[in-house]
Amino acid sequence: MADDATLDPADEGEEEEEEEEFSESSGVPLDLATTSAVGFVVGGLTAATVYASYPPVHSHAPILAASLGSVLLIAVLYLVVARLARLRAADWLIVGYALALVGVATLYMMVEGVQFLRDHVPSHLGVPTAAIAPAQPRA
To answer: Exposed, middle or buried: residue 52 (CB in 10 Å: 0-12, 13-18, 19+)?
Structure first.
């Protein structure tokens, strides 16, 4: 990946000052947090749309449209942010987008995995298969 200084050599002195400020600060700069949040929202909306459209009733068109539209939107936003702001901010846009998609996929797989185990683990192993245990008959 190209360094921010290689994009505009005339701003080399400003970039060094900015790097020093970034290394001295304890938090994440506001522009990086904002672009990451925008990427996270776009990724979350994409995941929600795909989840709502699954399983496909007639065709895969809504899932494909949401996925391709999301990728195209992120690509355009990346180019705009890289041109107007900093390349690092554009990279954080992608990081936020990827975190949202990976996070939603992880959560969904965990829920489905737990349900699979509840459905297939024998009850004699002591794994509860229902939220309420059946009442024990009194002798």
So the answer is: exposed
Is 105 contained in some domain?
A: yes
Number of domains in the chain: 1
Q: 18 φ, ψ to 5°?
A: -65, -40
> Is 2 within a domain?
no
DSSP string computed for 1-63: ---HHHH-GGGHHHHHHHHHHHHH-SS--HHHHHHHHHHHHHHHHHHHHHHHT-S-SS-SHHH
pLDDT tens, residue order, the chain (139 aa): 555 555 555 555 555 555 555 556 678 888 889 999 999 999 999 999 998 888 877 888 889 999 999 999 999 999 999 999 878 889 999 999 999 999 999 999 999 998 888 887 766 666 665 555 566 777 6
Predicted TM-score (pTM) above 0.85: no
Domain range holding 57?
A: 27-120
